[in-house]
Amino acid sequence: MLEAGTIVSGYRVDGVLGDGGMGAVYRATQLSLGRAVALKLLAPNLSDDPGFRARFEREGHVQAALDNDHIVTVYEAGQSDYGLFLAMRLIAGPTLKQLILDASLDPRRSVRLLTQVAHALDTAHGAGLIHRDVKPQNILIGKSDHAYLADFGLIKAPDEARLTGTGQFIGTIDYVAPEQIQAEPATPASDIYALAGVLYECLTGEVPFPKPSDAATLHAHVMQPPPKVSERRPDLPQALDGVIAQGMAKDPWSRPSLAAELIQAASRALSSSPSGIALAAPGRDGAAQRERPVQVTKTVASASATPSSSSRSTPSVVAPAAEAVAGEAREPSAQWPRRLIAVIAALILTAFAAGFALGLIVH
Ligand SMILES: Nc1ncnc2c1ncn2[C@@H]1O[C@H](COP(=O)(O)OP(=O)(O)OP(=O)(O)O)[C@@H](O)[C@H]1O
Ligand SMILES: [Mg+2]
């Protein structure tokens, strides 16, 4: 990690924003313009690897060429004394993953955010480019819930050779399409599969196939039917099951041809819920938040794990917080016996008082 104050090719490092599979991202100042930027630096051990260098350089060129309000703008890409760097627009907000982990995403907000991501993806696909690493960590949320798709490092034109060699897919395993696992070429439909996986996670709070090992997750993407929203969120419209089933279809040709179609279908499914019923954010265990308050621990694979598994961070449940159960968050069903007892007691007291008063009058 670079220390604050370090100058990297005209950019002053001000702090750390995050650490990813290819290096670290810093908050920095472009000294020539006094502009705040996000500065991504390739990890030193990767700088000499021709494959990683090529992916990193490609990230800058491809991202700079894309003109879309929902794609992070790249200002400069190049070589510095500290390795390869990428200067890009600083998005002062959380990632979508952070919003999911905080359980602060209700379904309608999720759809509003993913509509913007779908627009970015459809633009990239229209330009003949595939993102290949669509995941909540690569979706940054700026002011007024403006969503940005970041990290086009794995993007490539469909007719180009893979940069990582045959037999090795590029992408994050929690959202990776079956065809990528089977070493078939990624297509825009592979990004749509991943987007459907992200949609599922936004709605339920859980990745599509939470498994104890990477091998089991990969196997599930290829062999298991798409997960059902209704199993984790019975309070949401069942039509969402069909939306996820189509978006995460094993056959790429069975998926919606546009990312926007997928999210519009989700929006329609949500509108089919009875009006007036507020759709809650998923609880941190994936159930509706208002039903069962839970605490969460974040499980992150060790730094020595493979790059694909380094991004695995899955919410897992521990026992409900005692104060949440005892306090205001008590379920209505736990309160009604007390209320019934109070009402019966009030009736008995009233009857006694009435009888007493009647006795007085008679005498
Ligand atoms: N343009 C940006 N503005 C603000 N923060 C950013 C920006 N780009 C990245 N970050 C922050 O830096 C973190 C690390 O990003 P990075 O792309 O290196 O890793 P990642 O997306 O988590 O994993 P991977 O390397 O597998 O893509 C992000 O999670 C985000 O918090
Ligand atoms: Mg990233």
Notes on the structure:
It is a single chain. The chain is of the alpha+beta class and about 375 residues long. The chain folds into three domains: about 5-90, Phosphorylase Kinase, domain 1 (2-Layer Sandwich), CATH 3.30.200.20; about 95-270, Transferase(Phosphotransferase), domain 1 (Orthogonal Bundle); about 295-355, no CATH class. It has helices at about 45, 50-65, 95-100, 105-125, 180, 190-205, 215-225, 230, 240-245, 260-270, 305-310, 320-325, 330-360; strands at about 5-10, 10-20, 25-30, 35-40, 75-80, 85-90, 140, 145-150, 295-300, 315. Helix 9 runs antiparallel to helix 10. The N and C termini lie far apart (about 90 Å). Residues about 155-165 and about 290-363 have low confidence and may be disordered. Magnesium ion binds next to loops. Adenosine-5'-triphosphate binds near residues 19 and 21.
